[in-house]
Amino acid sequence: MKKLVLASGNRGKLKEFRDLLANRDFDVLAQSDFSLDSAEETGLTFVENALLKARHVCRQTGLPALADDSGIEVDALQGAPGIYSARFAGANASDEANNQKLLAELANVPDKKRSARYQCVLVLMRHTEDPTPLICQGSWEGFILREPKGTGGFGYDPLFYVPTHQCSAAELDSAVKNQISHRAVAMRALLQALAHFHVADS
User: Fold this and answer.
1) Selected catalytic residue, list 19, 69, 173, 201
2) DSSP three-state, residue 164
3) Among the residues of the chain, which ranges form H helices?
4) 197 — alpha (psi -120 to 50), left (phi > 0) or beta?
5) For residues 13 and 177, what is the distance between their CA atoms, to the nearest angstrom?
6) What is the 8-class DSSP label of residue 131?
7) Whole-model pTM?
8) N or C terminus of the chain: which is more exposed, having fewer CB within 10 Å?
9) Could you tell me if 117 and 73 are in contact, meaning their C-beta atoms sit under 8 angstroms apart?
10) Is the peptide bond before 64 cis (omega within 30 degrees of 0)?
């Protein structure tokens, strides 16, 4: 089995990646298995932050690393909150606080101008100096609602309206969400690319 360290402390993400990569001969480990602190996200794009996270884990563990960076961008806010999605309302902000800030920012924006999309960038880096890391991206188009709907999901899901299913992301069945979301699209691209991407056995 090829060992791969996930640059995240999120147990849900860890299970998701383990399930997806199990039949690709990868043993996905958590960065917490190595008692690592998270990398400082000083990049200005999702790609930069995902690269920073992956390189940090490679450097600390000596193993290949998989990192993702994701968030929501709202057209009426010139792409904000973007890379600051998790801390839109401040450091360590709750999902509810971030959602309330987004609603306040869009209070005077008409429905037809509330277009938005979730973005996800995945980076697989074989070692710290990898000159050609694998970078995959996925997006999910929608609109921002005027009030939260649904109790599923996390982040901005209660405010993210999915036109194809005529409901919020928080109202979707998790199995459906995992087929159509930005992360699902990026993961499919990653799985396809892995067929042509050599990672040495650990």
Assistant:
1) 69
2) coil
3) 11-21, 46-61, 95-105, 174-180, 182-194
4) beta
5) 14
6) S
7) 0.90
8) N
9) yes
10) no
